[in-house]
Design brief:
The complex is a heterodimer of chains A (347) and B (562). With 347 residues, chain A is an alpha+beta fold. Chain A has eight helices and 19 strands. In chain A, a hairpin with a 2-residue loop joins strand 9 and strand 10. Chain A is elongated. With 562 residues, chain B is mainly alpha-helical. Helix content of chain B is 73%, strand content 1%. The chains are: A alpha+beta (347), B mainly alpha (562).
């Protein structure tokens, strides 16, 4: 359906987007995930036609949209700050897109009612948008984008301005609406939880490029880079140096916090710098060793406890070197501990 | 095909959009302001113009202009400072009314203010004719010069009240309490504490008042009976009465130079006066008068202000309804007392009257010119305001440029038109263009904040919902701007109705406007002429006050001042 091909965009000489290519299939929800300033909103605006790329193409069903004005693209866009029309009431806001498409009056009222029902705002027709709460305003914005049944829906940080509880509710609703309507969607956010909840596929943007793409579970299991692992908060990223080879693709890595045997997808040379991921939940609790094992033993994290935080079923143990693990028993602060842990190889 | 043109419009490069936005307003300004200005400059810097005689006369006129403006400013401060203190510090009944009352004259056309003062203090005014037994030199018979000064005070007191009052109300009242507790009496409090702290805002306000007094025209011409020659009046005389266009050009260049300097100084003081000492909510500063001295102060100034402002404003309609002197050529018994003749006479085309048409025609002319001014100034103002609402480097340069006509006097604009478009002087078309020049800065300054307040996202949202650029403008910009547009249009309307200086120079005798008609009626002897001047001034006052109320209703509550 939607295809984005080799998009480049720079502001005042600074590249914002470099060679971005991806596609969105029928009924698919793709999430653009990235820190603020990573260019994801710009990409969205380029797709919407509100900005033009320096080079590259946006195609829909194989047709180039370069010369199609935003209002002729038939893409719905939901803004973070809602962008509701303050001089129109709820009904007229939702009906706006239909009126622009010259839909006849009876059908408009029918579709407005349906759209408001879909976002759980039945009966809000006559209300002034300025009198609504933030969550209600965002629902109106969603209904407004849905009512014309666009061929693509785009969300620019749609829940960014809402508080946490409301965000979760709306997120689940949004997910079911997207499934119900089967409209392909692009969802831009900096919140990984949001991204993983709504997305069929996640694209992570960093340094003006896509650094990882895949289904949420896939990205979670294989972050493939130190940045993605850190950005998603998957755990401790440890920098080390290859010091030996065990088997064909198993290497020994030396680091300041321990020596690890790790399976890697790529070939390495001796002395190569590598990043390892140590997920805090993979810490071996059985052995929650109190500094008994020697410094030389492998696959063990060494460090001095700097803080212990009680988190219901377990303790989050923070070490002085900045790493953290989850343990079932709380060690004392200042204690030196060695924790067996499983590490994964990042590129 | 239709889609193609739409696409083309949407994909215009930004520089071309800017160019198209600026095309109309800048062409207008170039033709009607910068071109005449260049003509005036060319006429001025010329060996035949810069003679000793001319320069001597210019210096003499400049000196008198300075003198009257300084004196007027001083008197305005004398009334304005205590009034500012009264309104900023004390709570009393009718305060909102008193504040509004002092603000009314500032927005009235000069001819109305001049007529009002004439109606009460003038030689044919209420005091003279109702109380002829009052001694000649009493305060009820001020000399024309005193009358001019009083009218200037009447006009500009509101500036002091507003600027200094704002500074005062954001000043911590504990400063005063501390000074009092340390033993300062009222004089010391003002001299050692309040005046130094308020100095930047007092200076800024005074400069603004000075600027208005310096460029005052209608009041001086009408109340001074052509005896007092300020730069403005002299330019007018040298255009219409003792024609010498190059001398007029020289005077107007001096005038423009002075106003530019004052404006720059004002901008500097104004920016300094906004840095306030521990600003706080103004509520806590307001108190009821408690001590006897406070009560005397408050009562005195309420009386003084309300009589000073109410008397002329009410004398005008009153005088327009009472026959107090004989008409021109009228013999035998004169019926003194209530009459509506002055109004009914407006519809009669009399031989021997100052017009070839019934005077009411002047009102119709004014309304027509005002309507044209509204259309023109919105036509030029909208694109300019649109461009200024999203300023780029270009707009930073253009912004002061399009405000420049504000700094040049109306008489000078008229002179420029005469020099540049002499051939078209017979056509009534020039007048609305001159009025548009005066109104445009106000229109732009009213539209601009409203336009800037529309988030770009609204337009983008509409556009992604399928609205073409035109539909976006029609469905988003226009409805949201409706209020600001009405306010801006009314501004243009009011300015056009009251415009005097430029119109006096370029309007044709057979197409007078209300202010021009008032001037001609006032300059004629006879009770009927005078009465008709009063009647027309009353109509103009009513129209203007109605417009002001409309503007206040529709203006954005926090839109900028000028």
């Amino acid at each position: 359906m939607l295809e984005v091909r080799n998009i480049f965009k720079a502001y005042e000489g600074k590249p914002i987007l470099k060679d971005i290519s991806f596609s969105v299939g029928a009924g698919e929800t793709v999430c653009l995930l990235g820190a603020s300033g990573s260019g994801k909103s710009t990409l969205l605006r380029i797709i919407a036609g509100l900005e033009s790329p320096d080079s590259g193409l946006v195609l829909f069903s194989g047709l180039d949209l370069s010369n199609t004005a935003p209002h002729l693209r038939d893409f719905g866009l939901v803004f973070q700050d809602y962008a509701l029309f303050p001089h129109l009431n709820v009904y007229d806001n939702v009906a706006f897109g239909l009126k622009m498409r010259r839909v006849d009056q009876d059908q408009i009222s029918q579709r407005v009612v349906n759209a408001l029902e879909l976002v759980n705002l039945s009966g809000f027709d006559g209300r002034q948008v300025t009198d609504l709460s933030g969550g209600e305003q965002q629902r109106v914005a969603l209904a407004r984008a849905l009512a014309p049944r666009p061929r693509l829906l785009m969300f620019d940080e749609p829940l960014g301005a809402l508080d946490r509880a409301l965000r979760e509710d709306l997120l689940n609703e949004l997910r079911s609406i997207l499934h119900q309507t089967n409209i392909p969607a692009i969802y831009v956010t900096h919140d990984q939880e949001e991204a993983f909840t709504v997305a069929d596929r996640v694209l992570i943007l960093h340094n003006a490029g896509i650094v990882r793409a895949g289904a949420p579970a896939e990205v979670w299991a294989m972050p493939e880079s130190a940045f993605v692992a850190q950005f998603l908060g998957l755990g401790n990223v440890i920098e080390g140096e290859v010091s030996g080879q065990q088997k064909d693709n198993e290497w020994t890595v030396q680091s300041s916090v321990g020596v690890f045997d790790v399976r890697c997808a790529h070939k390495h040379q001796m002395g190569d710098k590598v990043h390892l991921l140590a997920r805090p939940l993979s810490a071996g609790n059985d052995h929650a060793a109190k500094s008994s094992e020697g410094e030389s033993s492998r696959n063990v994290l060494h460090g001095v406890v700097s803080d212990v935080i009680f988190q219901q079923e377990r303790f989050k143990v923070i070490l002085e070197n900045g790493l953290y693990v989850y343990l079932n028993e709380a060690p004392g602060v200042g204690e030196k501990i060695s924790v067996p842990i499983k590490v994964e190889c990042l590129a | 095909m239709e889609n193609r043109t739409k696409n083309l419009r949407a994909s215009l490069p930004p520089w071309l959009k800017r160019f198209l936005l600026w095309l109309l307003p800048l062409s207008f300004l170039t033709i009607s302001f910068f071109f005449p200005l260049s003509k005036i400059l060319a006429l001025t810097f010329n060996v035949n113009t810069l003679t000793t005689d001319n320069l001597q006369l210019a210096f003499r006129v400049l000196a008198f202009t300075f003198y009257q403006a300084t004196l007027s400013t001083f008197l305005t401060l004398l009334l304005g400072l205590p009034s500012a203190y009264l309104l900023a510090r004390y709570d009393f009944h009718g305060k909102a009314f008193l504040r509004a009352l002092t603000a009314v004259p500032f927005m009235l056309p000069t001819v109305v203010v001049a007529s009002s003062f004439s109606a009460i203090f003038g030689a044919r005014g209420l005091f003279s004719l109702l109380f002829p037994f009052l001694p000649e030199s009493s305060i009820f018979h001020p000399s024309p010069f005193t009358l001019i000064l009083l009218a200037h005070v009447f006009y500009n007191t509101t500036i002091i009240i507003r600027v200094v009052g704002n500074a005062l109300s954001s000043l911590d009242p504990k400063i005063e309490q501390a000074a009092r507790s340390l033993g300062a009496d009222s004089f010391r409090l003002w001299w050692n504490i309040l005046l130094p702290v308020l100095r930047p805002s007092i200076l800024a306000a005074s400069l603004l008042v000075f600027l208005f007094d310096f460029t005052s025209f209608g009041v001086i011409l009408l109340l001074g009976e052509s005896r007092f020659s300020t730069l403005e009046v002299e330019i007018y005389l040298r255009v219409l009465k003792l024609p010498n266009l190059s001398l007029a050009a020289l005077l107007s260049v001096i005038q423009l130079f002075c106003t530019l300097i004052f404006s720059i100084l004002y901008a500097r003081f104004a920016s300094r006066s906004t840095i306030q000492v521990s600003p706080r909510s103004s509520k806590s500063n307001i108190r009821k008068p408690k001590t006897l001295r406070e009560k005397i102060f408050v009562a005195t100034f309420i009386f003084l202000l309300s009589s000073f402002f109410l008397l002329p404003l009410s004398a005008l309609p009153f005088r327009s309804l009472f026959r107090l002197e004989a008409d021109r050529g009228q013999r035998g018994e004169v019926q003194y007392g209530f009459t509506t003749d002055y109004y009914t006479e407006l519809f009669v085309n009399r031989r021997g009257s100052v017009f070839y048409v019934p005077p009411v025609q002047a009102a119709l002319n004014s309304l027509g010119y005002a309507a044209a001014t509204v259309a023109l100034s919105l036509l030029f103002g909208f694109p300019a305001a649109l461009a200024l609402a999203k300023p780029t480097r270009l707009e930073k340069i253009l912004d002061p440029l399009i405000m420049l006509p504000l700094g040049s006097s109306a008489v000078m604009l008229g002179l420029g038109f005469i020099i540049s478009f002499g051939v078209w002087l017979a056509s009534p078309l020039l007048v609305p263009f001159a009025h548009t020049l005066v109104a445009l800065p106000f229109v732009i300054r009213t539209l601009q904040p409203a336009l800037a307040s529309i988030p770009q996202r609204l337009r983008q949202a509409a556009s992604t919902l399928g609205a073409s650029p035109f539909e976006v403008w029609k469905n988003i910009d226009l409805p949201i701007l409706r209020r600001a547009t009405i306010a801006a249009g009314t501004f243009a309307f009011t300015i056009s109705l009251g415009e005097f200086g430029a119109t006096l120079l370029i309007s044709r005798p057979e197409h007078p406007t209300i202010p021009v008609a008032i001037e001609r009626f006032l300059s004629q002897p006879g009770g009927l002429n005078y009465g008709q001047a009063m009647a027309m001034a009353t109509i103009l006052m009513a129209l203007t006050i109605g417009s002001i109320l409309l503007i206040e209703k529709f203006r954005l509550p926090n839109s900028g001042e000028f």
